[in-house]
Specification:
This protein is α+β, with helices and mostly antiparallel strands. It has one domain: 3-Layer(aba) Sandwich (Beta-lactamase), CATH 3.40.710.10. Helix content is 34%, strand content 18%. It has nine helices and 13 strands. Strand 10 and strand 11 form a beta hairpin. InterPro entries: AmpC-like, Beta-lactam-related, Beta-lactam/transpept-like. Keywords: Signal. It comes from Chryseobacterium camelliae.
Length: 355
């Protein structure tokens, strides 16, 4: 018994030592980009098999009020919104209300070449539609309250960049159309559909459709960095990015989101797996994007990832299915990107877990 106890204590000490070393490694990775405690900062979290391995906040959530960042702060997540939009489309497909193979013209009859562009093309960024972020006149509507139809009308007559399915080119306009289709098919506003069918079912109590006017508890304020210091973020109408980038969340809620995907809380496995499938172009060439996620790898181990950027905020998350490992980081200044930080954190944890 004495030998068993000594062995257990030795194993425990080794585990605690390696865990402390991993924490120090993650701290040092984050501080390469988020080192100033008086500047806008970020929140980072590592979760494996439902257990939080690491969770820390850095810098200020509000510079003017001198409020320190905490792990429960709510951030705008930018293009990470796309994964929610993609799953919402698959929820509607599971209900028999649409098919990802449907042409856009089935729902928007006057959409140019809408008979050639499918929902699948929109989901995979292979539609060829001109991205509205590249249109110069965007500045004139950026602060206007736009309906989904008005947003689609804003860019639908632009000359396409290529034929549907010909190439992969990241595109926000396609996801605006998807948000509009969700409203047309469900009969609900996009934000209501997401709240009822995803946020509430997944237990994401601190996730919202973004607003600068609503009182949102624990909101992290967004900033830009100028040559003479930080300034408050540029105000835009969230009806413009809409279903391509207008959600808000916390790192802990995003862990709940990942859990909901893994356990079928919101959608069956057959439909969810469509989001994590690598598809092919018209010429048979594979590309590394499913529905709302980039399909990558870490040292040969398959991973799913996506980032986001919107005025004043940046976000990034990496999920490694074989290890049930989720790494996420949010920043409340678009001057600090968590993208490489989160990737380096994920690599460090994967290496530690494999040892």
């Amino acid at each position: 018994m004495k030998n068993i106890s000594l062995s257990f204590l030795l194993i425990l000490c080794i585990f605690q030592q390696s865990f402390a070393q991993l924490n120090q490694k993650l701290d040092s990775i984050i501080q390469t980009e988020f080192s100033d405690p008086h500047a806008p900062g970020g929140v980072f979290l590592v979760s494996q098999k439902g257990k939080t391995l690491y969770e820390k906040a850095f810098g200020k959530a509000n510079i003017e009020l001198d409020f320190n960042m905490v792990s429960g702060n709510v951030f705008e997540i930018g293009s990470m919104t796309k994964q929610f939009t993609a799953i919402a489309v698959l929820i509607l497909e599971s209900q028999g209300k649409l098919s990802v193979n449907d042409p856009v013209s089935k729902y928007i009859p006057d959409y140019p070449s809408g008979n050639l562009i499918t929902i699948h093309h929109l989901l995979t960024h292979t539609s060829g539609i001109k991205d509205f972020t590249k249109i110069k006149s965007l500045q004139y509507i950026a602060q206007k309250e736009m309906t989904p139809k008005q947003m689609v009308d804003f860019f639908k007559n632009e000359t396409p960049d290529f034929k549907p399915g010909e190439k992969f080119e990241y595109n926000n306009a396609g996801y605006v159309i998807l948000g509009y289709l969700i409203e047309l098919v469900s009969g609900e506003r996009y934000e209501d559909f997401i709240r009822k069918n995803i946020f509430e079912k997944a237990g994401m109590k601190n996730s919202y459709y973004a607003s600068d006017r609503k009182i949102i508890r624990n909101r992290a304020y967004g900033y830009h960095q100028k040559t003479d210091g930080y300034v408050n973020k540029t105000i835009i109408s969230f009806s413009v990015p809409f279903a391509s980038g207008s959600l808000m969340s916390t790192v802990e809620d995003m862990v709940r989101w990942q859990h909901a995907l893994n356990t079928g809380l919101i959608l069956d496995a057959a439909h969810i797996n469509k989001a994590f499938t690598a598809y092919t172009l018209n010429n048979g060439e594979k590309f590394t994007y499913g529905y709302g996620w980039h399909l990558k790898d870490i040292n040969g181990i398959p991973s799913r990832e996506h980032g986001g950027s919107i005025f004043g905020f940046k976000s990034m998350a990496v999920y490694v299915p074989s290890l049930d490992l989720y790494v996420i980081g949010f920043s409340n200044c678009d001057c600090h990107s968590p993208t490489q930080v989160v990737k380096d954190m994920a690599k460090a944890v994967v290496n530690a877990v494999k040892k």
